[in-house]
Amino acid sequence: MITANLSLTDAATRIDGPLLFAHRRVDVGLNEAVQVVGADGQSRLGRIAALDEALMTVEILESTSGLSLTGTRIRFFAEPISFSLGPGILGRVFDGVGRVMDGGPPIATRVRMPVDGAVLNPMRRKKPEDFIETGVSTIDVLNSLVRGQKLPIFSGGGLPHNRLAIEIALHARLLRANAGEEERAPFAIVFAGIGVPFETAEFFRRSLEESGALGRTALFLNLASDSSTQRLLAPRFALTAAEYLAFVEGRHVLVIITDFTNYCEALREVSASHGEIPGRKGYPGYMYSDLATLYERAGSLQGRPGTLTQLPILTMPSDDISHPIPDLTGYITEGQITLNRSLDREGIYPPVGVLPSLSRLMKDGIGAGFTHPDHPALANQLYASYARATQVRLLANVVGSDGLTPEDRRMLSFGQQFERRFINQDRPRTLEESMREGWSLLGQLPIGELSRLNDNQIATYIQQGTE
Predict the structure, then answer these.
(1) Is 314:329 a contact under the CB 8 Å cutoff?
(2) Which of these, 329, 334, 376, 309, lies nearest to 172 by C-alpha position?
(3) What is the pLDDT of residues 380-409, one digit of tens each?
(4) Which of 366, 363, 316 minimizes the C-alpha distance to 338?
(5) Which residues contact 139 (CB under 8 A, 6 or more apart)?
(6) Parallel/antiparallel/unpaired status of strands 2-7 and 73-80
(7) Backbone phi, then psi, for 445, in 5-degree steps?
(8) What stretches of 227-323 show up as alpha helix (H) in DSSP?
(9) What long-range pairs does 263-269 form, CB within 8 A, spacing at least 24?
(10) Are 291 and 328 spatial neighbours (Cβ–Cβ below 8 Å)?
(11) Are 352 and 359 spatial neighbours (Cβ–Cβ below 8 Å)?
(12) Prior bond to 408 cis, omega within 30?
């Protein structure tokens, strides 16, 4: 509902990039939706970003090119920015502020949901559990993604995180083991590209369309040419769509967002435009709480059938994991998947660094009733053996391979085979295929090295010939 029309001929003080500064002459609230109408009749969506008793700042979410103070009017709405959602959002392509951009009909509105998310009572949250298969062996076996979890991927400039993101979107599914049978639950993907070049956006769209996966996906594309203020809302619109699918339609939703570094850069740019005092490396001091408002929208709720799982992707500037963006993200999320540049240079894809990667909720989604009873032991043994192989590799760099014992050489060979056969994969693998490959690799090691397996597990994989 429109509550006021205010001429800005004498109320505005200036327009600075995507920000419009004006005297406060009406009763408005923070984050309230506004519509800025220029003298040419073109309307632009915006929101109240800051205000005090005398002044207010409006973030304009579209280009301000051609907008002047003379003849410009601003309309205030008695509600925050909302997203109109309804059946049929799967298979559709949206821009960063939820407008249909695939040439199809508008979405039939069932509910309007605020893009900043509803306030959730922490007591209503359920513990994340159950397993999501991604098709990536290093994730499925060693750093399992659990339904309701937020597990980021830490990448670097030039690494193939976009390719990995789209492949996970194509092949991810909810896998539940009940009496030895797989059960598929209603599953959906929300994929969001933030600040991506046009070529990358077309790659995302084309890959989903040609594979047929777009039918179960809601795709949001915020281009690098879009305004920085619009970039701040793109993940919020995507997460609002995910909340609708999860908590209204009762689906299990996996949200893949790339790249959160572009989001944080936009946050720094807009903060500087506001004249706010910068914090670490120029980012605003509130970036931690701002990121938390996005990451903490993952989870499941008591009395609601669906779940929302997040797989955010960010590129670490200069591959620095202590940079504020990955550093603050690590404090909020439940682990991380780290991509390794050395593996990428060796032609290994996906170049997942196993040792620095971690899924803190993995134990709640694997084992009996979820994947396989021997999955935890296999994961622990593979991790321990690869860590030992890495130590031997460092030793070989000092003393040379001739100075290694036969046992060390065997472990060094295991490490090389682990990277070439287990980490590296030319196609998606099912969990069963990934576990079979893991057992096969452990067959290279003597029994005495398998300290993380019990006697029954050792006997079983020996009897099976490490198939």
Answers:
(1) yes
(2) 309
(3) 999 999 999 999 999 888 887 777 888 888
(4) 316
(5) 145, 337, 352, 359
(6) antiparallel
(7) -95, 150
(8) 228-247, 260-274, 287-295
(9) 263/194, 263/195, 263/231, 263/232, 263/234, 263/235, 264/291, 264/314, 264/324, 264/325, 265/195, 265/228, 266/195, 266/228, 266/229, 266/231, 266/232, 267/232, 269/228
(10) yes
(11) no
(12) no
What the block records as the tokens of 99 is 């407008």
Distance CA 83, CA 13 (A): 30
The three-state (H, E, C) secondary structure of 317-384, written as one string: HHHCCCCHHHHHHHHHCCEEEEECHHHHHCCCCCCEEEEEEEECCHHHCCCCCCCCCCHHHHHHHHHH
Contacts of 156 (CB under 8 A, 6+ apart): 315, 316, 319, 339, 341
Give the pair of three-digit tokens for residue 335.
């682990």
H or E stretch including 442? helix 431-442
Pairing mode, if any, of strands 307-315 and 252-258? parallel
**What is the per-residue pLDDT across 8-51, written as a single tens digit (0 to 9) for each?**
555 677 888 888 888 887 888 888 888 888 777 788 888 888 88
Distance CA 260, CA 314 (A): 5
Half-sphere exposure of 19 (CA within 13 A, CB side): 18
User: Facing residues of 7 across strands?
Assistant: 73
Give 39's contacts (C-beta < 8 A, 6+ positions apart).
68, 70, 71, 72
Query: At which residue do the structure tokens 């937020």 appear?
Result: 150
As given in the structure block, the two tokens for residue 267 are 């946050």
What does the pLDDT read at residue 462?
59
Mean per-residue pLDDT for 241-248?
94
SS3 104: coil
Measured CA to CA, the distance from residue 99 to residue 220 in angstroms comes to 9
Spatial CB neighbours of 197, under 8 Å, sequence gap ≥ 6 = 223, 224
Question: Domains (ranges, CATH) in the chain?
Answer: 2-79 (2.40.30.20), 83-364 (3.40.50.12240), 375-463 (no CATH)
3-state secondary structure 43-63: EEEEEEEEECCCEEEEEECCC
**How many residues are given for the chain?**
467
In angstroms, the CA 421 to CA 433 distance is 12
What pLDDT shows up at residue 465? 56
The total of other beta-carbon atoms located within 10 Å of residue 316's CB is 21
pTM for the structure as a whole: 0.91
Do residues 237 and 107 touch, judged by C-beta distance below 8 A?
A: no
